[in-house]
Design brief:
The chain is an all-alpha fold and 271 residues long. Helices cover 80% and strands 0% of the residues. It has a single domain, classed as MetI-like fold (Orthogonal Bundle). Helix 4 packs antiparallel against helix 9. The radius of gyration is 22 Å and the shape is elongated. The two termini are 14 Å apart.
């Protein structure tokens, strides 16, 4: 059976799983033959056991003043920050991107602001957010918004600009109002490319969120990593990093599935 165009290939899924298994086997081989000291690279079995033992409750992490909820509570804080920032960035970035794609005057005003903000290294701006907002959640969310909104804005603007003008012209011929043109023509036509930008923003947001938590946060997986690094506890530090990576993979898979469902009309249009 041939999959419709635009649907994920089973073969690609198998290759992806095989690639992950090869990484784990390579990791196991390095630790098994002691090519690297366990102090720097603990064995995968020990790391996975550390995740299981400290996932939902961890007196050990509580000794570091990281709360009683284990890794799950820290992951929950990190995921919430990423979700809040991405939601705000999508609303503002898509609205600005679609508007500037259609209004040249508005684009001339907004483009320099957004693109200048996007050219500033995001890591350099992190300390300023900590100075302005302290170690509260606002500092991490604001930093992520600055990063995410630039990506979503550029993708939304480009997607609307790349839309075939024939569709807009035809809708005007049938008497469609500007509001209906945007909601029923421009937005649906730009969605596939916008979704690509959202996934790129999401992929980078995990690492940026962990980094901002490293600099100072009341909670979060980055704070766990910082505490474990200070205590030279490499297995727990790697466990926290791996737990965040697993969550990021599953969230991306879920988001991709939602996007494929929302834009399922593409598959029927190509048949």
């Amino acid at each position: 059976m041939i999959s419709p165009p635009g649907t994920p290939s089973r073969r690609l899924d198998v290759l992806g799983v095989l690639g992950l298994l090869l990484v784990i086997v390579f990791w196991w081989g390095i630790s098994q033959f002691k090519l690297v000291s366990p102090l720097f690279l603990p064995p995968p079995g020990g790391v996975f056991l550390t995740i299981v033992d400290n996932l939902f409750a961890s007196p050990y992490l509580a000794n570091y003043h990281l709360g009683e909820g284990g890794l799950f509570a820290s992951l929950e804080y990190t995921v919430e920050n990423v979700a809040i920032a991405l939601t705000i960035s999508c609303i503002v970035g898509v609205a600005l991107g679609l508007t500037t794609a259609r209004l040249q005057l508005f684009r001339s005003v907004i483009d320099p602001i957004v693109l200048t903000a996007g050219t500033i290294p995001i890591i350099v701006t992190a300390p300023f957010f900590l100075v302005w907002f302290g170690n509260s959640r606002i500092a991490q969310v604001a930093l992520l918004i600055l990063y995410d909104i630039t990506i979503v804005y550029v993708f939304a603007q480009r997607a609307a600009a790349n839309l075939d003008p024939t569709y807009v012209a035809a809708s005007r011929t049938f008497g469609a109002s500007p509001r209906r043109i945007v909601l029923e023509i421009v937005l649906p036509g730009a969605l596939p490319e916008i979704f690509g930008g959202i996934r790129i923003a999401l992929a980078g947001a995990w690492g940026l969120e962990a980094f901002s938590e490293l600099l100072g946060a009341p909670n979060g997986i980055g704070r766990v990593i910082q505490a474990m690094a200070s205590g030279m506890d490499t297995p727990t530090m790697v466990a926290a990093i791996l737990a965040l990576a697993i969550v990021a993979i599953f969230v991306d898979f879920f988001v991709a599935a939602c996007f494929n469902y929302i834009t399922r009309w593409r598959r029927t249009a190509r048949l």
